[in-house]
Structure formats: structure tokens, C-alpha cells
């Protein structure tokens, strides 16, 4: 197939897929970025009216930059969060080295952070705002929190196997959460009374609400609009990690008017990448210049692939849930990769492990085995989607992908320093102010996204 025809086929495919995945009502929005204007499909979809005359595509000013999105998976095993934690430490270290700023934090380079389950805890820690207005935690702080939690589980006799499933005590964060209230105390110690409003960047964290029988997305955009959707970060983390042994966690908004009977985000939305992209592309108040996927830089970090039982072995109900959740996460990756199409290699990367790390099988390692296993996963080459050609083994290791993405993040930050146009214009609201006090509360953005996700699932 000729390259030009292949590109045209992709763009037609993207038009058909845009409404399904990202909720566009107007397919031409997919090509509103400067790079897409003038393409054959963009010219085709610009034609209007019975006259058959083509209407020129509106071209945004050049060099408007890209919105940078961080998405972190959640799951149901003891390994949850450790691959992501190690990847985030590596990425933050690379950013500091490239910029020469030892105080640089990931939140300085990303415009949105989304996370599910243990990934939700990591995302919340990375964007929590300290008293000085700076991010409260570094990536190393977040990883240390996960490792301490896992070490505490080892000391309680929770087992040392890396591939321990939820049937033998639950995932890392679930084990922490249901330690006779110890999880709630741990989250309170980390976040105190900080709420969704008290973040330096927009944050998105999903759970499943048993009360409405549908996904619920905790969002700073909603929290800024009205107190009815502002939750304490400690409760957000409890909600996205809930669900061990079928138990739900009830959380209430800061004003007490909204109640969520939550089970974990890993069950409802283990891979929140599509939700994060949808949030950016439809939230014109905060991201007015984000017109399509070409205006995004997205890194999606998986929770690691489980080893699973042997062939023909009887699977427990929790193991079946885990397999189903990982399958959905992979399908989200497949759909997002296809949506990015020819921009996949430059604008979207997926960090994921394959198989069970050998280093994690050492019992009684006191956390050392987990650290080695995380490093081993970073050295792997994962399987990635290829446009119209299924999947293949990536050419770069996970660590090499992160180094390449760090270069793109630094380049985007430098571009913003010299250009008056920024793709991310985040609405600022003073902590504690209630912007919804003098106006009727708007329809919840999380409900809009939940409806979209339910239709996709």
C-alpha cells in the first residue's frame, strides 16, 4: 500500500473512531491541529453544503504546543504500582538531569495526572500541593510509600511472592487499606485535609459507584465548580483502592452532599488513559487549544503483567476479575494507540511489563526483591500496537522509552517559555473558595465521562 493511501485510510478510520473514543460531535475537530490541516481527509470532511464547495479548515497558529498527560494503571496484585513507581522515579530523574534543576518535579512538566487503584494514589501524591505552592511529593517519595506499605505487609506475614494475587490477601494498596483501618490512617497521614482543589495540576481518579451502578471519576474540574464534587484526597485514594473481599468504602464530598459507595478503580477503569484524553479534548475551559490527538503528549504506565496460574489450572473468582481487568486495560491501550495512528511513536508511549519478574520471586527480601523486579521490568521490551497490523515487540525498552519522552517533555517546557501560546490554560481557584456558591451547580463532568465509558464498555 502506498504511504499516501495508507495515511488517508488512517485518517478516514480516525474520523469514524473519534466519536466512539473521544466523544466528538464534529469529526472535523480531529484535524483542527496545525499538523492535520491540509491532509486529504481533513479537506474531505471540510466540504459542506449542497454546492459541493470545500470550506477551508480553520488552522490554529503554529507552535501552540501540546498538552502533556500522565496516566497510571491500577490492578489487583501485590506488584501494583511498583512498575509505575519505578518508571516515575526514572522519568523524574531524567528530567532533573536534562534541565539541571534538582528540585524539578513531574508536576512541573505534566498538565494532567490520571491514575486508578495504586496508580491513583501515585497520581494524587504527585500533584498534591504543599504549603509553598509546590508539589508536596517527589516520585521517589511516592515509590517509597508503596515500598513501605509492601514491607509492612511482609512483616505481617502477607507473603513475599511478587505474583501474589488478590485471592491471597489483595493487591498492595488494598492490603494497606483493609488493615483494620490502617489504610485510612496511612492516607490521612500522607494527605491530611487536602482536597481535590488542593492540587497543582488537574487530577482524575476513577472508582465504581455501587449506588449508581456506574463508574465515577473524581475530577478537580468538578471540584473547582462546586463543593458537591470536592473530596478529600485521602478519601479519593480509599475509594479507588477499595473492593478487597467484596467490601465497599463509603466516601462523602467535603460538604457532605455527595455520597459514593466505592469499589476500586482497578475494577471499573484499570487504564484511565482514554478518560484523561477525553477530559482534555472536551474541557475547553482549561485546555482551549487542544483540538485533537496531535495536540497531546501522553505517557501511559501499566501495572505489570501477572504470571497467572498454569495451563488448565482452576482459576479463582479474584483471578478471573484480574484477568478481565488486565484485558480491558490492554483494549484501552489498543484503542488509544490506533487513535494516535501515525503520531503514536512520537505522541504516545505505553510502559508495560511482560511476564513475572524473576527478581520478585525471592521471598523474605524485605522489599529488595520488589525493587529489583521493578528495575527488571523497566529493562524489558513490551508488546505494542501497530496501526492496522496487530502488535509487535517494541524496538526500545521501557527505560529507553521514558528517556525519549523526557526529551519531549523538556522540549515542550522550553517551547512554552518562548511562546505566548500555551495549550494548557488551567483555571485558578483560591483554596477554600466556593465558585459554585453563587450559581446553580453544573452537570458533573465525571457523570458525562462515566456515561461515555459505560457506552464503550
TrEMBL record:
Where is the region Disordered?
Answer: 411-446
SUPFAM superfamilies recorded for this chain? Answer: FabD/lysophospholipase-like
Q: Which InterPro entries match?
A: Acyl_Trfase/lysoPLipase, PNPLA_dom
What would be an example GO MF term here? hydrolase activity
Q: Report the record's Gene Ontology biological process terms.
A: defense response; lipid catabolic process
Give the Enzyme Commission number: 3.1.1.-
Identify the Pfam families for this entry: Patatin
Does the keyword Cell inner membrane feature in the UniProt annotation? no
Residue ranges of domain PNPLA in the record: 70-277
- Member of which family? Belongs to the patatin family.
- Present the record's domain note: The nitrogen atoms of the two glycine residues in the GGXR motif define the oxyanion hole, and stabilize the oxyanion that forms during the nucleophilic attack by the catalytic serine during substrate cleavage.
Q: What does this protein do?
A: Possesses non-specific lipolytic acyl hydrolase (LAH) activity. Hydrolyzes phospholipids as well as galactolipids. May play a role in disease resistance. Lipolytic acyl hydrolase (LAH).
List the protein's name: Patatin
Which species does the entry assign this protein to?
Answer: Eleusine coracana subsp. coracana
Tell me the gene name. gb10732
Amino acid at each position: 500500500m502506498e504511504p499516501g493511501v495508507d495515511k488517508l485510510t488512517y485518517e478516514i478510520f480516525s474520523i469514524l473512531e473519534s466519536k466512539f473514543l473521544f466523544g466528538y460531535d464534529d469529526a472535523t475537530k480531529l484535524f483542527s491541529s496545525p499538523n492535520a490541516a491540509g491532509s486529504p481527509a481533513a479537506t474531505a470532511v471540510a466540504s459542506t453544503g449542497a454546492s459541493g464547495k470545500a470550506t477551508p479548515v480553520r488552522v490554529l497558529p503554529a507552535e501552540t504546543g501540546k498538552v502533556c498527560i500522565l496516566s497510571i494503571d491500577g490492578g489487583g496484585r501485590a506488584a501494583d504500582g511498583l512498575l509505575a513507581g519505578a518508571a516515575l522515579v526514572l522519568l523524574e530523574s531524567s528530567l532533573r538531569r536534562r534541565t539541571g534543576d534538582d528540585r524539578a518535579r513531574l508536576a512541573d512538566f505534566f498538565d494532567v495526572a490520571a491514575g486508578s487503584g495504586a496508580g491513583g494514589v501515585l497520581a494524587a501524591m504527585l500533584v498534591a500541593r504543599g504549603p509553598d505552592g509546590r508539589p508536596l511529593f517527589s516520585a521517589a517519595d511516592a515509590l517509597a510509600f508503596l515500598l513501605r506499605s509492601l514491607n509492612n505487609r511482609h512483616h505481617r506475614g502477607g507473603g513475599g511472592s511478587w505474583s501474589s494475587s488478590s485471592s491471597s490477601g489483595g493487591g498492595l494498596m488494598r492490603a494497606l487499606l483493609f488493615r483494620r483501618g490502617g489504610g485510612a490512617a496511612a492516607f490521612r497521614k500522607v494527605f491530611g485535609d487536602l482536597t481535590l482543589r488542593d492540587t497543582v495540576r488537574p487530577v482524575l481518579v476513577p472508582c465504581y459507584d455501587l449506588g449508581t451502578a456506574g463508574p465515577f471519576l473524581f475530577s478537580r474540574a468538578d471540584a473547582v465548580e462546586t463543593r458537591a464534587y470536592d473530596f478529600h484526597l485521602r478519601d479519593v485514594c480509599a475509594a479507588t483502592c477499595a473492593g478487597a473481599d467484596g467490601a465497599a468504602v463509603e466516601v462523602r464530598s467535603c460538604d457532605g452532599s455527595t455520597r459514593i459507595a466505592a469499589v476500586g478503580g482497578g475494577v471499573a477503569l484499570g487504564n484511565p488513559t482514554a478518560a484523561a484524553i477525553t477530559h482534555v479534548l472536551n474541557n475547553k475551559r482549561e485546555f482551549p487549544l487542544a483540538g485533537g490527538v496531535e495536540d497531546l503528549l501522553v505517557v501511559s504506565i501499566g501495572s505489570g503483567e501477572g504470571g497467572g496460574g498454569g495451563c488448565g489450572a482452576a482459576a479463582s473468582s479474584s483471578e478471573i476479575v484480574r484477568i478481565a481487568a488486565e484485558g480491558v486495560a490492554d483494549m484501552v491501550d489498543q484503542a488509544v494507540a490506533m487513535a494516535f495512528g501515525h503520531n503514536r511513536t512520537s505522541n504516545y508511549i505505553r510502559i508495560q511489563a511482560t511476564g513475572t519478574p524473576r527478581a520478585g520471586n525471592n521471598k523474605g527480601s524485605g522489599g529488595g526483591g520488589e525493587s529489583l523486579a521493578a528495575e527488571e521490568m523497566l529493562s524489558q521490551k513490551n508488546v505494542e500496537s501497530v496501526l492496522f497490523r496487530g502488535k509487535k515487540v517494541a524496538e526500545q525498552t521501557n527505560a529507553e522509552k521514558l528517556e525519549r519522552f523526557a526529551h519531549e517533555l523538556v522540549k515542550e517546557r522550553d517551547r512554552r517559555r518562548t511562546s505566548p501560546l500555551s495549550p494548557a490554560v488551567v483555571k485558578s481557584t483560591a483554596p477554600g473558595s466556593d465558585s459554585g456558591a453563587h450559581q446553580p451547580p453544573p452537570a458533573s463532568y465525571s457523570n458525562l465521562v462515566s456515561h461515555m465509558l459505560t457506552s464503550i464498555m
